[in-house]
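WARN no homologs supplied; continuing
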Amino acid sequence: MRKVVAPPGFKGYRPYGNRVRRKKQVDLLYEEYEAIKLTDYDLMNHQEASELMGVSRATFARVYESARRKIASALVETREIRSVFGNAWLDKSWYVCNACHSRFTIPATLIHQTCPICKSKQTNLISDT
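OK structure emitted
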């Protein structure tokens, strides 16, 4: 299991302007997204990122390489990218709003699981399904 601080803020990306029939999507796992975020966005080296995710540096390198290959494949082959849970555990309890699809945490002091964006009460705890 790989530690993920926050789930991706998207369910997927689609190529724009592609008129070719739909191809099979690329599934980007939460831990792959986290590896890309830590290395390419937060500018951490592999050792720092692996410690944050709770895995060895070699395991982190494999996850990162898999993410890079999937993203490259999606871009070159004009395929949709979809975020999926994978082999990860979330640092906190995260929820997804069924109305606006935003993802958020709920402070322990709140009782109601209301979306902070659209105020909908139609929220679900993100799990491995």
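The longest strand covers residues 26-29.
OK
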